[in-house]
Amino acid sequence: MTASRIRVIDLETAGNGPYDVCEIGWQDVMLADDGVWSLADERGALFVNPGRPISPETMAIHHIIDEYVADAPLWKLIALEVLQPQGGVAALAAHRAAFEQRYCTPRLSGGAPWICTWKCALRLWPHLQSFSNQMLRYQRMPVGMVHEVGLPAHRAFPDAYVTAHHLRDMLNQAAIDQLLEWSSQPGLLPRVPAGSERGKGWQDISDQALEHYSKDRDVDVRFTAETELRRRGGVPSEEPMSPVQGRLL
């Protein structure tokens, strides 16, 4: 395995079933000899046959129609080729990686660790207004991004290309081990996302409000409230946290 390559993955799907992938896109990010991370030449996209018709609701998001994927290979026949490239990877990455991980199981990915660029953006750029892939794109305007290559949005390669620019800048700001650690935890939200305290920084709300949010059903809200309670020297609740990612910001 090489420690110098991370493969950014983006999937488009026909539904929520375990094999419902209809397109996969990827863009590699490489570490150069001078210690700087940059986008590599290895990139691409492949259609995947989801084994069932794509619903009109889903077509309206990514505009992939049944005739595009009719002759494409099934997910289980193509996943290994992309997720386990020759030479290996230090990690796989995606924006809100929990979605991709539903389909890119450890058996298909070879057990590679994952970097979630959404979770890392929350840590590195908490001052930003929003943390969706496209909002990060236009708030940050990453250097070197070719605007047209990142279009259309909601297609596998353009979205992977955009995410790779975020990842490149993250890796040049923080160590890969740090990104992996943040990615293994729930999201640390910079502001309260809902309720009477919506929009406030966690440091600006009362202990009582924090205790309330520490029991929220959203794992990211709970984790963030508990983190702030610990910072204040409090003791958060001991209720187990769900692994599901929370709200979009």
Automatic annotation (TrEMBL):
GO MF terms held by the record: exonuclease activity; nucleic acid binding
CDD domains tied to this protein: DEDDh
Assigned keywords, A-Z: Exonuclease, Hydrolase, Nuclease
Domain Exonuclease: 5-176
Keyword match Hydrolase: yes
Annotated protein name in UniProt: Exonuclease
UniProt entry tagged with the keyword Nuclease: yes
Annotated stretches, region: Disordered: 230-249
Species in which this protein is naturally found: Devosia riboflavina
A biological process from GO: DNA metabolic process
UniProt xrefs under SMART domains: EXOIII (SM00479)
